[in-house]
Specification:
CATH superfamily of the largest domain: Rhodanese-like domain
CATH class of the largest domain: Alpha Beta
Order of helices and strands: HHEHEHEEHHEHEHEH
Strand order of the largest sheet: 1-6-5-2-4
Shape: elongated
Distance between the termini: 88 Å
Structural class: alpha/beta
Amino acid sequence: MVGLLIRAGLLASLGVVAGLLFNTIRPDGVSLGSAPPAAACQLTAVSARTVERLTPSQANHLCGNPNVLIADARSAESFAKGHVAGAVHLPCAAPQGVAQGVPDLLSSHSTVVVYGETTGEALAVAEGLVRRNGSSNTALRVAVLEGGFSAWELAGFACASGPCVECADGKNGELIWPGPSTTGGKP
């Protein structure tokens, strides 16, 4: 029995050595050196930046500041039914000509506050903005409205309504952003 175990161990060792030799001979063999770190572990200046979370009250204090852009990440239909006064609709689903204008729009602001139906919806868009615009505008502060548009409405802050102008006129490639227009609520 002991002899059988010794022979099995010897055959297994011989198999390992043969496999390693065969692997090194093959041009497409598996590299046994150190593997590069996973991409998710490599933090760059862009990915190290975080997206802030603002309460409706904190976001309201930023309204009216010309360096702050309030951006609605919801559908064009939801935007038309009601949005934060002075907000622009991020043209995520707009024609390519309109969508290409977003980096230019962001470059003229130091802060962008994104909101959606939920915090999670806004967070996904805000993180995308950080990734896409981080290298060209490292000073851009990106935040989300905690609780989404419903939290803004519940707080009683200024709202507006009307169609998404850039989506309606996007077919001709012109970048037209709606201006601030309030229909009620507190400033």
